[in-house]
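Sequence dictates fold. Below is an illustrative record:

_____
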Amino acid sequence: MPESEPLHDDVHEITLLEEKLAALEADLRQKKEIILAQHTKLEAFFDTSIDAVVQMDFDGYITGWNHQAEEIFGWRAEEILERTIEETIIPERYRGAHHAGMERYLRTGESSVMNQLIEMHALHRDGHEFPVELSIAVIDSPDLQEFNAYIRDISERKESESIIWKQANFDTLTTLPNRNQFLQRLEHELLNCDRSELSLALLYIDLDRFKEVNDSMGHDMGDLLLIEIADRLKQAVREVDTVSRLSGDEFTIILGQIDDQLSVQRVCQELLASLSQPLQLGNEKVHITASIGVSFYPGDATDIEILQRNSDQAMYAAKGQGRNRYQFFTPELQERALRKRKMIDDLQVAVRQAQFEVYYQPIINLNDDSLLRAEALVRWYHPQSGIVSPAVFIPIAEETGLINEIGSWVFYQACEQLQHLRSSFDIDFQIGINTSLFQWIDESAPMNQWFSHMREQGIVGAAISIEFTEGLLMNAGERITNRLLDFRDAGIQMVIDDFGTGYSSLSDLKQFDINSIKIDQSFVRNLEQDDNDRDLCEAIIVMAHKLGIEVIAEGVETRYQDQVLRDFGCDYAQGYLYSRPLPAIDLAALIASRT
């Protein structure tokens, strides 16, 4: 029927449209499901992210806030959504810059922070600020306009970095700048001097005899002493000056922007006065002094290394002049330092090549004029310079630690000579060995090996006497005391050298079972001219005999001195009156002539 065809076509079109619509609806549902799934995944990603994810619209209102954001900012999502980011998590000092940046982006589309990893501080709900690392991305489409900020709390990382930086730049004991920080500040101050055309003074400070105090009192007390010294140094200078601890008991001070040396002199005087005041460390009262060396920039040096070396040389010059003083650098000091460096090098060669010889000064028994004792004295024969005085090389040997090797070499040589004399003349001869304080306080010193050597050679303890000065007893902490007692228990005779010049007490003499004391030659020399020295010598002899201690007089040169000492009851004497120090072969010949 022709009339029905249009209707049939309409139905067919409607059916096609319905099918298309159904297909579109199905496609839409599928896309919605995909979008919903993606949104769910995105929400899950945001909530499980280790970063805080904060979403904000273009008006600055917070529209998204994940679980990690709650954790690091202290705000719950329901409390902060629809509030502005400015009033909640941005510190007040950043708000002006944030507002200006937002306006610039909305106006021009330009931003200096978008898609960049930046560090700043954020604001916690309780009001404290903390460091964060963040990046910001923008979504700008017809359907969505927002900022996504990914924020990470980096407080722990910053704290670790701070700790590492402090460890790299500051001394852990005193909290003063260390060598690394000192060099950075020194370089900075030198640039300031160049700009201002003013000077800079570099002070090197070294505590006098700190090792002795540290070893005798223990390292814990030594640490307390260093902390107190650091505080005193800081209090003696300006806040703009830099006090550093380089190592051990070595400190530096940078005095920047100075225009005259008189002000530096005053600072040095104040430092010495402050450091010399007694320190109360727990129950102990400690007295210590310091030596200071000073060099100036640019007057003495324009190079950092040379400037430091000049201050160091000046400091050692101050020590050489008696300690507890300061010394400005001079060209003469540099020449002296070069000579000293040459001496150290030569002394090291001398130890390797055994360029030494032991001489022996006889010690006479004043009761019967017998010769059964001698003191071993080391002599250095330099290949070019000839004989070098012990007064010159022994302090350098002590400073460099070579005294340990030299001291042991002398001991072994003396033992060899002792065996020769005892076997050749069938006498109970005794040789005295000088020791340095540094040998006693140095843990690495090989003195304890002497006992086994004596046993191997069959040398009895009484055949050896060990000489040391009163200063050893004054610094006899536990370690030194134990070593002294080891020698005493081995039967080795204990002799105090240069007695009367120190401050040892009678209790010291009894505690360590001292066998003999030597009256210092300065008192013996003045027996004819000074009644006080005569009285002192007599008092020492009487006191020693009361304690059962023998007395040896040093430096006897005249018959008058000899007779006075005999009248006082002195037991032994040595000096040029009887004999100069002799090589081993001449000592043997002298003994042979007297037997």
User: Anything to note?
Assistant: Confidence is low (pLDDT under 50) at residues 34-42. The first strand starts at residue 52 and ends at 57.
